[in-house]
Specification:
Structural class: alpha+beta
Order of helices and strands: HHEEEH
Strand content: 15-25%
Number of strands: 3
Strand order of the largest sheet: 1-2-3
Amino acid sequence: MTRILAKIALMAVAATVPVHAAAQAALEGKWANPHRSVIVNVAPCGSAFCGTVSWANGKNREKGVQIAEKNAARKKKGRARRSRR
């Protein structure tokens, strides 16, 4: 899951850098990780590109739900999320 999030973050950073129009068109679409356990849909988002997870296998989906629940609980308590990496 850490690798997936790192790849998504890398794609987000790469999408903020202005590039040639042909390269921008190549970035759009559905992208899968090497194990095909997550598929991300990349589309224009203002002047940049945004990636949203359009499909995840059951194991990754469960991890995502657990992380979201932990973050929601922290937000209710007023604590900011701290990166462990």
